[in-house]
Task: structure prediction
Amino acid sequence: MVQLGLVAPADGAQVAEVERLPIDSLWVGGHLASPNPSPEPVVWLARLAEQAQRVHVGTATLVLPWYQPAVAAKQLADIDRASKGKLLVGVGAGGEYPADFAAAGVPHEQRWGRLDESIGLLRSFWSGEPVHHRGRYFHYDGLRIHPAPAQTAGPPIIVTGRKPGAIRRAARLGDGWMPYLYSAHQYARSVAAIKVEADREGRNLETFRWMAYVMVAVAADTSSAKKAATNFLGTTYRQDVSQFIDRVTVTGTTDEVVQGLGEFVRAGARHLVLLPCSDPRSVRTVPWLAELVAALRTEFDARAPT
Result:
């Protein structure tokens, strides 16, 4: 069965409204000092965990190198209990905004190593037992973080990103994979690469979560939808994205977007997280969102095995 997620609205009333749609998850992201005004992701996640009553909640993405692992482990364990065990933790290395790393006091060039070491430490701390660790970046002598999360093994850790290093990280360390700014073709290639790497590492991917974070825009005609997506991404990333908009978004009429997202499913995705190409702080104002979610639910549920 294919699951559907959405980037979370900004306030509780809108969360309640969106949660009435046939969706499975709501997601938050954020930055510390990016050029665009943005919330800090853990604060937003804590708020969302109290607002959402039914769906899973997650981070897309938590840039883990910004945080001391023991502090992040504590925050996320508390949030998992607040959400009654419905937390999914999407983590990445970040890097597009060096000011975020300056704000965290973390050298930009250390982000990959800190991320890898921190993923293992989260799981160790979530055991609720004392942690003894002597790593490249972090040292702990019997440090205990408790109480443990609601989920027995801790929240699933979903690796996000776009580059080959992120694909390898997902295969070696992640409980799932959620790339962004990918085409369905790129997604299929990443699935194949993760399976090869996991086999090399001797990992069983039976419970692995195959996810995709996809930017979408729906309009009465393809041209208008593409224009909306181009304006949205151009403002967000402060560059001309018109030359590659077709590769990194799914745009068009409702039927065309359903077909385009279906290509991700055929490529291996089983949980699609959608970011409407409009104001992400106010998902309720996207007039086509409910229609799109209903059409996707009908399409994907029809494919589910009986």
